[in-house]
Amino acid sequence: MASKFWAASSSEEESEEEVTSSSEEESSSDDGSSDSDSSSSSGSSSSGSSRKKGASRFLMGSSDSESEDERRVVRSAKDKAHDELRATCNEIKNKMHINDWAAIQTLFDKLNKQLERTQKVTQSLGVPRAYVRMMCELEDFLNKTLADKPKLSPTNTRALTRMKQTLRKHNAAYAEQMRLYRENPISETEEEEESPSESESAGGSERDMNTEEEEEAKFKSVRTGVVQRPKDKILSMDPKEITYEMVQKKLQEIAMARGKTTRIDRQEQIEMLTYLAAVTKGPVQKVEVLINIITVTFDMNQPTQSAMTVPNWNRCAQTMFDIMVLLDENRHVSLTDTPPEDERTEEPEAGAPTQVWGNLGAFLERLDDEWNSSLKALDPHANEYMERLKDEAVLLALAQKVSQYLEAHNELDKLAGVALKRIQHFYYKTDVVYSAMRKLALQQQQESATAAMAAPVADVEVVDGEEAEGATELIVVKIPHDFSIPESCAELVDQLAHVVYAHGNDNQKGQAMLCTVYFRCIRDDFYGARDTLLMSRIQEQTGQLDAKMQVLYNRTMAQLGLSAFRAGLVYECHQCLMDLYGTGRVKELLAQGIQQHRFQEKTPEQEAAERRRQVPFHMHINLELLESTYLISAMLLEVPAMASIQSADSRKRIISKPLRRLMDNYERQSFTGPPENVRDHVMAAVRSLSTGDWRRAYQYSTALSCWNLLPQKEGVLGMLRSKLQEEGLCTYLLSYGRFYSSLSIAQLCDMFELPERKVHSIVSRLIADEGLPASHDQPTGTIVVHHVEPTRLQTLAGTFSDKASLLVDLNERALAMRTGALHTDEDEGEGRRGQDGTQGGRRTRMGGRLGGTGGFGRGGRGGRGGGRYGDRDRGSGFMPESGFGGGVFGRGRGRRQAVQRDDSNFTQLGGARARRQ
Amino acid sequence: MSQYDLTSAVAQHLDRHLVFPLLEFLGSKGLYDAADIEAAKLALIEKTNMVDYAVDIYQQLNQTDEVPEALVARRSDVVSRLKSLESAVRPITEFLSNEENVKLLKQDKTQNQAFLQKEFSIGPEQVDALYHFAKWNFECGNYSAAAEYLYHYRTLSTNPERTVSSLWGKVAADILLQEFGPAMDDILKLKEMIDVDTFAPVAKQLQQKAWLMHWSLFVFFNHENGLNALIDLFMQDRYLTAIQLTSQHLLRYLAVAVVVNKRRRNVLADLKRVISQEAYEYSDPVTEFVRCLFVDCDFDGAQEQLAKCEEVLDNDFFLVAAKDAFMEAARQFLFENYCRIHQAISIRSLSEKLGMDEEATEKWIVNLVRNARLNAKIDSKAGTVVMQNQTLGAYEQLLERARGLGLRTLDLSNAVFGAMRAA
Fold first, then answer.
1. Chain-centroid distance, C-alpha B161
2. Closest residue of A to B294, CA-based?
3. ipTM of this complex prediction, to 2 decimal places
4. Which residue from A37, A238, A254, A761 has the least number of CB within 10 angstroms?
């Protein structure tokens, strides 16, 4: 089947036919080609040596359109590219006559660029003959010039030497073609006339022949003319005659060419390999060939720059499936990482254990990366994105296959890698999304199964077409029938995570752990998720993690916060999200878009790195929801705290800086319109809540559209309502309590729609813990307020005593600094935190003290650090304060690290904070 | 009530032999089916070498007189092994039985080893055998012998791992012999060993801490100063972490100890925090009581929980002795907190809350007032207790704040002078 095409060209009559047909075309299009040739050459000559392709192209184009309008319509990009190429060749020839090496050099570069473009436009098909010829001529001329040593201007001499070097390097890649060209220059000369016009002929044929099939036929024959080069001897042989060594040699040739230069025509290699795969002598060799197909395809693009094209990706995937099938059928064949030392000269016996070089895990990883980066390149709202997403099933099927293989061959470390990759496809999926994906996958599977059943012939057809068209056809990857995707995502993730825990390295384990935490978060298992996270102690070393892990960690923290909020755990939610929002770089931290900063210029490398880190759109966490969650939880904590500052002398700390900042801004506005975005809404709610008007606060908060994103919207809003009621009551009592001499509990119940018991318990808590100067009068069911406004003298005396005690404090501290007694008496029991932590702790505590009385700017933060010291749980510090590398306690260290790290646009939050100070 | 029974949770962290008293206790309470308990005992004992006892239980359980073959064979095995071990350790036991000889031993263990080797030809093998012999004795239920041999083994052994292990054995034997004084000392020694060993894998450390805490329950609730020691041990950061990670049910014992122990009010804040943190993983009436009272200020809830507490404590092997003290202390806590936030309380509702009748309540309050624990008066006409104003005036507040200043300054100046003199 595959060889039909090639075999045809090998048989004599047919090739003759081809020649005639192509010469026919040539003659028919002769005037056209000469026209364009002359125009381009005239353009180049008139524009002079310095004029570049822009001008010539323009001229050429214009002459085209003047002379033949209709032709311009049918002229394909391919033909144009060929024209340009040829024009440049001619120009180089002209320059050669006048020994203008500087111009030759620029033209040479131009020619190479054009070649690339031509290859791109024509989708493959190697090097045009004109190009090879040009190279040969250029080389000869160069040698001649070097031998003659004519007098040249200094610029020219320099250009000559440079040309010498570049040409030598460059031509190494085309050595084969050039050798062949030199070997039979006769055939070449014979074709010389033909080849320049060969692509032209296509255009010409289109003009002449109107029926499409004929046109198609022409196309094919033309292509044959191009592809069929003497080099491909093996292609023209009878498949039966091809021996093992021949294939092996060819394979080696291709393998040797790998990584040498970018100028190799990969497409051609792939075609060759596909052909080889069909004529191999046994499974081992076939696997080798197939693996080479994959590696060559991988080489076709730079992973850092652009994503693999879809057809290429599909080919890789299909090839991998083929490999898997082969390996499955031939259990004795296995893959190794180390290239074999001695070459096989013949196919090993069936059944004998054989090793072939190749790493399925790495291939899979690369495919996965390519898939991700192609998603990143697409517009997430376009249909293509959805189409591409559907390929996930293929990837998963492949991953399953590979892990089956690895498990069977006991390659456990790679198995862990593959398992991790699979987890990464599942962890962010909610049950709904998962079941949808599952359905789609099963459907795809069924489709491919029926397709395979119905028409094996059609299958062949596809392959045939693919080869003929140089893989421009979209290869439909079939999902194998034994791909299974379990009903319960949780079990699957659990299993995979166990595999990683058992066999993975530390990094993989960490990632798997974070993924499972994330996974639990979106399934509302806050406690389970939190405990897993704490147990791992990963938050102590986030500074040392690589950027990818940090992003994952941040994403996990965000989800943890969201799930805490859904569970009604406002305090925990705030703790989780605080550090994300403390910096104002949420997008950057979650890798969901690039943020511009006022005071910071990023270098292009940093930007590129950040772009690479981005998470594909379908994995994004909704930022609006996250922001509302954070701000509302901050509001619920901050508003009562603010109220208690007014009422009592207790030195409260600022709980949420971002919220405070927003409030300041809000207050500064002369007019406040009705709320529009998240912040406006929350601000309005804050305003209402701080007067105890929980109803309006509730209205404002529920007006946010992002709640619709929550599946359990009702429950969350109910939770929000009751929280607002409670905090409203607290705020009300703390702000306005002192204006009453007594308050009736029944009335409070009425105002806040709370049961009496709840009101009683809240009031009691305020009295006991928050220092509300009141007490219950049980027989009458009222709250009696004892507030006595201190006289001016008393206030002053109080201030004075505060200052005095501060003075003593500072004195003690100063002394302790001198004598070094500080470590022992102040920070006992903090030893576990290590040196840096101890220092941090001390600083924060001092900050707290200063801030409380003297109003130093950083008092708030210090106080918070001190406070957190109190509520760290499980001895590991709950939340990311110790997390994002440095965090609160190690701020000093954080700053230092921020300076040291090159990758400083993703520094730890500690560093960011330190800078803002 | 059985949902609050912690026996199975606790038993996971105990030695086989230590579980035995728990089962005995459960048997006496009738919370479970007697046959079930007997069966559990048999299952427990089958793995030990107390074959005779096993036979007893077997016969009781199956209402027969016959003895299963396996047990008979087992018995002869055990006895022969015991005999062989005994002969192996004979030189040592003979050596140890002489008081004079024991006095010859020095502090330095390696020296001792050489000395024994030279004088009595007791080598490491014999010392090892002593360990096994003690272990075998312990397995057979011969705790006093085991305790003694283990004690001697510790003085002779140079193997650190074995030493720890023998210490565990010693503690278990002491507990089973109800010698809580020595057990207390050994517990503290064990704790030291565990604390020093920071290089062990984290999981092992955690497990050892959990075990230590569970074993210590036997001692702490029976020793006169046990509750203090319990608070000291459990409230240490690392042990608190261990509680939170592996055995949250220990919070019950911690809570009881804190509530009962009036002198240790300062740890109440920590207890509150831990209990409310772990509420999602573990809660029982005792912890709920603490949470309701101290965290939520929900007095009705606390009252409900307190009623349940009584029963829970009654069915808990460790706490049954502390029940009355706990109830009394809890009631007092409840009352104090209640009074602190009230200006006037009717005696009737108070008596409901405290679970006493009105007259008793009045008496109780009068007693409290008389002991100056409560600044209140009873308005018997209205049937209320009226609290005296307990808020500090501005003047007192000021004094309070400035109280320490003088002393601290004096200290400072002394320190400065001292430093100057030194320099």
1. 24
2. A765
3. 0.75
4. A238
